[in-house]
Amino acid sequence: MTAMVKHHLLGFEAEVDLETTQRWYAAEKGWSCKCVDCRNFRAFLRKGQLPDFVLEELAQLGIPPEKPTYVCLTNPHGDKEGYDISYRIAGNILRNVQLGDDSISPLMLPLFDWPLPGRCLHEPCPKCAPEFPEPHFDLEFWVEIPWVLDEPKSRERQDFIDEMLKCDFFGYETEVDLKATQSWYADAKPRRRLYDKAAEVRNFRAAARKRQLPDFVLEKLDQLGIPPQKATLITYVYTDEDGNDRYQFSYRLAGEILKAPKEHGTEGDCLHEPSPICPQDFPEPHFDLEFYAAVPWVLDEPKTL
Fold first, then answer.
1. d(C-alpha 64, C-alpha 50), whole Å
2. If you placed Cys at 74, which of 47, 82, 150, 264 could pair as Cys (CB 3.0 to 4.6 Å)?
3. Quick one: which of 268, 256, 271, 253 has its CA closest to 178?
C-alpha cells in the first residue's frame, strides 16, 4: 500500500491512500444498479450537479462525482427526493472529531442528531464495490435532488433494502425492518412528560448520550442504527450492594419475534411491552428489545428514588 494522508471528512479524521483510491475509480464504472431510482440519480448527474459540499469533499480526494459506490433513495423532501450516496475510499477511519470519540464502531457510526450532511462509516451493503482494496471505508452524503426521468417514480425497495434483517437477540430469532425502525428514531423528538423529568430517566439518557452503557448494549444498538439515548422505556430498578445503579430499558423495533428461547437470558429479552409509556405511533408489527444492565450515575444531583 502507498503512503497514507490524513484528511478531515465530515466530522471524522481519516487516513487515506489517495493513489489506490484514484487508481480504482479510474478503472471502474461505480454504482451500476438499473432500478428507476438509481437511473434517476444518474440522469440528474448528466443534467445538473451535486451540492457544493459533496463536490468539495470529493475534489480533495480526486474522486469523480459520477462514480458513487452506493446509491439509495430514502424519503421525499418537498418537491425533491432524498438520496443516500457514498464513495468507497482506501484507508482507515481514525476518530470521530465531531464527538471527540476515538472508539469507532466498524458497522454503524452516529447518524441521528448528527449536525453534518454526511458521515464516514463502513457501509454493510454487499453490493458496494466488493472488490475494493482493503482496508477501506465509505464517505456517505445525504442529498436532495429533483426527479428528472420521464417515467413514474418507484417506491419499491430493492432486494438488498427490502429484506428483513434476521437478528438473534439473547437467543430470540427475530426479523427487523431496519428502514422503518431507523426512520422512526430519526423523527422521534424528546418528550416532556412527568415521566421524562424524573432524575433516574434523565440520568439514563445523559449516560447514553456519552455512550456510557455496557458494550453488549452499544454493539446491538450500533448494528440497528438506534441512538442509545432514545430508549422507548426506561426503568430504574435498584442500587445493588456494590453501589451500581441497575436499570431495565428497552427499544422498540419494527419487525417480529420469530422464535423464543426455552430460557430467559440474564442480559435481556425480546417481548411486546404493554406499558402505555412506550410510543403508540410506532409502525406495526413491532416488538421491544429489552436490556438489563448497570448504568453509571452521571448527573450532579441525587436520585429521587
1. 11
2. 82
3. 253
Nine-digit cell string for 10: 465530515
**Across-strand partners of 118?**
141
CB 135 within 8 A of CB 118: no
Helices then strands, counting H and E runs in the chain, come out as: 8, 12
C-alpha cell at 109: 457510526
* pLDDT beneath 70, residues of the chain: 1, 75-78, 98-115, 124, 153-164, 305
Whole-number pLDDT of residue 76: 63
Cα gap 136→96, rounded to integer Å: 16
Alpha-carbon span 27 to 81, nearest angstrom = 30
All three cell numbers of 100, joined, read 471527540
Tell me which residue has cell 462525482: 65
CA 78 to chain centre: 23
The x, y and z cell numbers of residue 7, run together, are: 484528511
What is the C-alpha separation between 84 and 186, in angstroms, rounded?
Answer: 14
CB 9 within 8 A of CB 139: yes
Q: Which amino acid is at 143?
A: V
Rounded to a whole number of angstroms, the CA Rg of the chain reads: 21
- Written as one string, the DSSP assignment of 52-80 is HHHHHHHHHHT--TT--SEEEEEEEETTE
Q: Characterize 18-35 residue by residue with b for buried, 16 or more Cβ atoms within 10 angstroms of its Cβ, and e for exposed.
A: bebbeebbeeeebbebee
Q: Is 161 exposed, middle or buried (0-12, 13-18, 19+ CB in 10 A)?
A: middle
- Model confidence pTM above 0.85: no
